[in-house]
Amino acid sequence: MSSLPHYASTQLKTLSRDLSWLRFNARVLQEAQCPTVPLLERLKFLAIFSSNLDEFFKVRVATLRRLVKLKKKTRAQLADNPKRELRKVLEEVGRQQEEFGVTFREQLLPELNRHHIHLLNEAELSETQREWTARYFEEKVRDLLSPVVLDDAMHHLFLKDQTVYLAFYLREPRNPKAGIEPERVLLMELPTKRHGGRFVRLPDEGEERYVLFLDDVIRVGAAELFPAYQRVEVNAIKLSRDAELDIEEEVSGDLMEKIRNSLSKRATGFPARLLYDPQMPKETLRAIKQKTGITDEELVEGSRYHNFRDFFGFPEFSDPGFNYPARPALPHPTLPRTGSLLAAIAQRDHLLHPPYQSFDYVTRLLREAATDPRVSAVSITLYRVASKSAVVKALLKAAKHGKQVTVVVELKARFDEESNLFWSDKLKRAGANVIFTPPELKVHSKMLLLTRREADETTRQYAYFSTGNFNESTSQLYTDHGLFTADERLTREAAAVFEYLRDQSVVPKLEQLLVAPFGLRPGLNALIDYETKQAQKGKEAYIILKVNSVEDRGMIAKLYHASAAGVRVELIVRGIGCLVPGQPDFSENITQHGLVDRFLEHSRVYVFGHGGEEKVYVSSADWMTRNLDRRVEVAFPILDESLRAEVRHLLDLQRNDTVKARDFENSYILADAGKKPMQAQEATYTWLKGLKRRQRKTEITGLKRI
């Protein structure tokens, strides 16, 4: 294959990773704005947007600020100018924050009111409501408060990460002769957790329902809290701290100790953003800056209320249409509801599609393996697990029953390090062999391998490969694909990958699995090159990718090269998409869209035309440099023809969505005139619901195909 074309250089036309991610969060905000989304679900999309942006500041903005502080010569070696990038990012964040405020104030609050739900502030309370709120403050809230004075006796004020604080500005003493200072500034943590939530439900009045922020309950009680002052102004702030671990750059020392140190540093990391109420008196803001050491660079003008992620806990109302309709997990068409899963897997491959189908099949398989006297060994990779993990409990049970349990625990799963440390300690105490990979290598693949002695005394292995984590909680929210198989072509190579995880000095030679960091990039390059050669010969050539992110410059250059040769490339990208599609000469044969809907699109699927013998891979890996070069990722082929058709059909539903799909510019892709709109996630549930037991013949009509 010829070398990469000129646009593989540093002049490669791409959208920056951070601006692309902000485009994704804008799509989340679009869901909050969408009138066809149930009302209380729209509030949850605001919460998701807010939570996403918090993490963005903690990780990406903090990283950019650290890059800006590098020496000029060092900065010059970076692909992008961090100072210019930071300026663009903050401008876009400001625009989105303004749009967020308009969405909340001018769309969602009026819509709540129309449905007789009123989110009041303290100034809007009736006299009766104010009296009720004052009593509630005295009985339920006052004892939870512990304000501190920002005076000369305080040398430094430490603010917790991602925590709302209320600042009190006290002035005009009622008795000036009493020796009370004319002005005081106090600060206290908003006691959301100890109170049991951010919102207070007031008594109904007929069909009218009323809700109050906890912040405003405290504002009502502020005068009683500080009776010596005539005027008490209450405003909110919130700090986000730098959460970037940078652990991947470290290559020596004890990994667990590094992780524990990083966790402690995270709690005290450098400020990345201080959100403040624009109505806050300048005296209050000045005192906070002075006591915390926060500079104007970290200040971001917010609103009256912060931590909109607390809207996940907004009071529930049972009105019809307020929430998504129930979508109970579907029974699997070929896996038994009761009885042995191992026996069913021994007969044939099975695909699982959470959350449309229940993740319980995975935990059932683990529980069955734990007690099956013929199962001798269980190996699994754990990246993120649930807080009360049924998966880990099954592994502990397996160890108790004398199985050889090998667990590869990823300690560098950002924001889950503490949980993973907890479960790894439990597993080690139970006798499991717990493997932590080297600091420079992150295990993101999702694999389970069981070894069993069969009735004829032969040894057989059973595997489960997945795009999603072994996490029963997120399995209800994330769309993923999982493959149960006893196909020796796949199980033998899964065993080789586990051997590699035990000892990276021996790189396995694999024919079926594409495994990073040693085989995924070369394998993908070869598949793209094959399509390029086909196109150059004038033959049909196409690539369809469904991923969370496309960021790696080398892979983008390969796709540009393929497009220039005539390969049709279709991208379904949920999040970061740095490739610029539809450009003359180098990407005119590339299209891109993404879906944001009820469930988080999490599965990765790669399709290659391959001269009429279509190849379909399902994977844990996005097309990002970190996934291809610094992580253990697995892309597994769907070898069973009927299952390959199943994955392809579900992918085609995504490709033909005309309700929740947005193009590269975030414009909705609408159905052609006269055609019925199609919503992929709804169509997926309906299609899977209609699958008959043991019937795998896929009938596909009316869908655009490549």
TrEMBL record:
<keyword id="KW-0067">ATP-binding</keyword>
<keyword id="KW-0808">Transferase</keyword>
<comment type="similarity">
    <text>Belongs to the polyphosphate kinase 1 (PPK1) family.</text>
</comment>
<feature type="binding site">
    <location>
        <position position="478"/>
    </location>
    <ligand>
        <name>ATP</name>
    </ligand>
</feature>
<dbReference type="InterPro" id="IPR041108">
    <property type="entry name" value="PP_kinase_C_1"/>
</dbReference>
<protein>
    <recommendedName>
        <fullName>Polyphosphate kinase</fullName>
        <ecNumber>2.7.4.1</ecNumber>
    </recommendedName>
</protein>
<feature type="binding site">
    <location>
        <position position="52"/>
    </location>
    <ligand>
        <name>ATP</name>
    </ligand>
</feature>
<dbReference type="Pfam" id="PF17941">
    <property type="entry name" value="PP_kinase_C_1"/>
</dbReference>
<dbReference type="Pfam" id="PF13090">
    <property type="entry name" value="PP_kinase_C"/>
</dbReference>
<feature type="active site" description="Phosphohistidine intermediate">
    <location>
        <position position="444"/>
    </location>
</feature>
<keyword id="KW-0547">Nucleotide-binding</keyword>
<dbReference type="InterPro" id="IPR036830">
    <property type="entry name" value="PP_kinase_middle_dom_sf"/>
</dbReference>
<feature type="domain" description="Polyphosphate kinase C-terminal">
    <location>
        <begin position="341"/>
        <end position="504"/>
    </location>
</feature>
<keyword id="KW-0460">Magnesium</keyword>
<feature type="binding site">
    <location>
        <position position="602"/>
    </location>
    <ligand>
        <name>ATP</name>
    </ligand>
</feature>
<comment type="function">
    <text>Catalyzes the reversible transfer of the terminal phosphate of ATP to form a long-chain polyphosphate (polyP).</text>
</comment>
<keyword id="KW-0479">Metal-binding</keyword>
<feature type="domain" description="Polyphosphate kinase N-terminal">
    <location>
        <begin position="15"/>
        <end position="119"/>
    </location>
</feature>
<feature type="domain" description="Polyphosphate kinase C-terminal">
    <location>
        <begin position="513"/>
        <end position="669"/>
    </location>
</feature>
<dbReference type="InterPro" id="IPR025200">
    <property type="entry name" value="PPK_C_dom2"/>
</dbReference>
<dbReference type="GO" id="GO:0008976">
    <property type="term" value="F:polyphosphate kinase activity"/>
</dbReference>
<dbReference type="InterPro" id="IPR003414">
    <property type="entry name" value="PP_kinase"/>
</dbReference>
<feature type="binding site">
    <location>
        <position position="384"/>
    </location>
    <ligand>
        <name>Mg(2+)</name>
    </ligand>
</feature>
<dbReference type="Pfam" id="PF02503">
    <property type="entry name" value="PP_kinase"/>
</dbReference>
<dbReference type="InterPro" id="IPR036832">
    <property type="entry name" value="PPK_N_dom_sf"/>
</dbReference>
<feature type="domain" description="Polyphosphate kinase middle">
    <location>
        <begin position="129"/>
        <end position="314"/>
    </location>
</feature>
<dbReference type="Pfam" id="PF13089">
    <property type="entry name" value="PP_kinase_N"/>
</dbReference>
<dbReference type="InterPro" id="IPR025198">
    <property type="entry name" value="PPK_N_dom"/>
</dbReference>
<dbReference type="InterPro" id="IPR024953">
    <property type="entry name" value="PP_kinase_middle"/>
</dbReference>
<feature type="binding site">
    <location>
        <position position="414"/>
    </location>
    <ligand>
        <name>Mg(2+)</name>
    </ligand>
</feature>
<keyword id="KW-0418">Kinase</keyword>
<keyword id="KW-0597">Phosphoprotein</keyword>
<feature type="binding site">
    <location>
        <position position="574"/>
    </location>
    <ligand>
        <name>ATP</name>
    </ligand>
</feature>
